[in-house]
Structure formats: structure tokens, C-alpha cells
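Page 47, continued from p. 46.
Same chain as before, 396 aa.
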Amino acid sequence: MIPSVLPTYNRAPLSFVKGEGSWLIAEDGHRYLDLGSGIAVNALGHAHPALVQTLTDQAQKLWHVSNVYTIPEQERLARLLTENSFADTVFFTNSGTETAELAIKMARKHHYDAGHPERIEIVAFEGAFHGRSTGAIAAAGSEKMVKGFGPLMPGFRHLKWPTSDEDHAAIRAAITDKTCAVIVEPIQGEGGIRVVPDQCLKGLRDLCDQTGTLLIFDEVQCGMGRTGRLFAHEWAGVTPDIMMVAKGIGGGFPLGAVLATERAASGMTAGTHGSTYGGNPLGCAVGAKVVELISDPAFLAEVARKGALMRQGLESLVARHPQVFEAVRGEGLMLGLKCKPAPADVVKAGYEAGVLTVAAADNVLRLLPALNIPDADIAEALTRLDQAATTLEKAA
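Result:
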């Protein structure tokens, strides 16, 4: 008999009743150090006092009025985002998947209105993850994502992950007079914490400029301070035309956003897109508080420092457990451990040690702690990961 909750998840045998900072408390009272943060969502940890207060205050005033009306909280968050990014305008969604849908529509509509309706193709990359809607899985293109869900949305070309001059030659060849955009994650999350080198992002920007192609950055997982900059692409000194943001922007409240330049968004006029819940007062009030806190240069500097501290500890962990770990990947507090055993086995060993991690592709274990994780919790996390690795070695 099918469960009342559709069984699309391989759930762990854990259930949590409370969260405090970097810690989750299970039904039996056992405490777990959370290095997954709801997959990079709880950017400020669990039950952050400022977010709790903001949500409580807004909940006592107004929850929902729909986008038929002007929403002051939405306009305030949009201003914060445009003031702290390349963007001129913002559309609010409830999730990262929805941002993918709008990014695709926006890119195609831009060229349509510019007199080039033939420019509908989007260049994407293997290993990508842009969400689970039919458009988003077509953009990703992997068999795991698309099998059984055809026919897929047409208009995508999938290329090798860009890391070399050879790969960039293939990208140049793939961009034709039918190409409207290139979509890429500056750091792949689901794909295994794979970082696009700065020179490759610069090369993509130059290529898009030369061909009149729009550049879309998917920063749903790597954005919102996770790398020590507000957005990961800032390290490369380039900007996109369109950017997808979600996960950490709501600090745990469902919220997403598409940021764009005025030029890229020029085709999105009244009636071309919409959302019932997107940009509601509750979500935007919380999002504004998150952006205020995370965009502070002192806060971002601390993320970079904590990331370096954690990476140093992980490098030591790799050296002590060569049978379990191969290498450390990532930037800031978006880190990955390349594993020798299946990452799922390492995750399970972590449960026994009281530490929560997230598996990814390419045999990688993701570590996505709260951006404000205390140094003491980083030290405790490393101790518990060490215990998990030792357990795996003994069982081998």
C-alpha cells in the first residue's frame, strides 16, 4: 500500500522536533550537529532570534494579499538585492525550481522581443541541477533526472563541465545564431561541489558578450554568502545577465528570486509571468532580514574565515583517513569531501556519530553548515567526522 506521503524520498530514520543554531534535536532528545542546513537553506542556523522575531512581527500584521497589489515588504527586499548585486530588477518565487522556469522564459522572451524568435536554444552543462520541473530537468539533461518524463522541453544543448581551453572551444562551437543563453552554476552542488574556475567564468562572460547571448548563473545553492561573498560569481569579477537565487535567501522560509539586468528582463512585461504566493509579505520580511545580516561585509569576512578554518581541518581529516577520503573541494562554507566508499555510507556513519551531512554526485559528501556556525561547533564537527571515518575503517 502506498504511504499517505508520496514515497519520492529515501528518508533517513530520523525525525527532529527542535533546532538551535547549528544543532538539531531528535524526538528521543539526541542532539545532532547539522552540517547540511536543510541543503544550504538554514543559512543562519535554526531558530535565529532575529528571524523568529521578524516572522512573528509580520505574522501579526499581514500574511498574504497577492500580487494584484503593491507589497511594501517585497519592494524593500528587491531594493536590498539590487543595491547589493548587478541586478536592476527582481521577481520573487517560492523555490529554486521556479527560478529556473522564469530564467528560461526571460532569456527566450528577450530575444523574441529583440526580433530574433529563432534564438531559443540554451547551452547547459553535464552534472548540473536546476530543479525538478519539466523545464529544469530538460536543462540538466542527465538520464537520472529525465528518464520516464518525456517528451522533454526542447531547446537545450548539453556540454562537458568547463575546466579547460578545449572545453571552451566546444562552448564556442555550440553557440550559434539559435542560442539565446548559457546557464551554469558557478559551483555545482548536487553535481559534487565542482567549482568553475574564475578564468572559465570570465571566458563565458566574454563569449556571451561577443555573441549577444545571455549569461544565466544558477546560484540557488552557492549564493547568499555561502562562499564568503554575497554571490559566488563575485570572486571571478564577472556578472551575469540573469541569476537564480533561493535556498539561503529565506533562512528556512520558502523563498526564491530571479535577479536580472534591465536589458535581460526587457521582454517580461505585465502578464508574461506571475506567482500566487511568490513575494508574499511573510517571506519577503524574513528575506529582507536575511539579506541585511548576510550582506554585512564583516559577516561575509567571517564566513570566509570559518571556511578556511573548516577546510584546514578537513584536509587534516583526509590525511588521517586515506581509506575513506580523497580530497577536499569547494569554497567558503560550501565544502565537499571526495570519498572512497559510497557517500551514503559516510552519511550513515555520521548519523551514529551525531553529525548530519549530505551526499552528492561524483562520490562527494557535502558540508553546508550554517554560515554563522561557531568555531567550537566546527571543531566538534571535525571530531564527529573523524569518529565516522574511524567507524568505516573498522568495518572495512
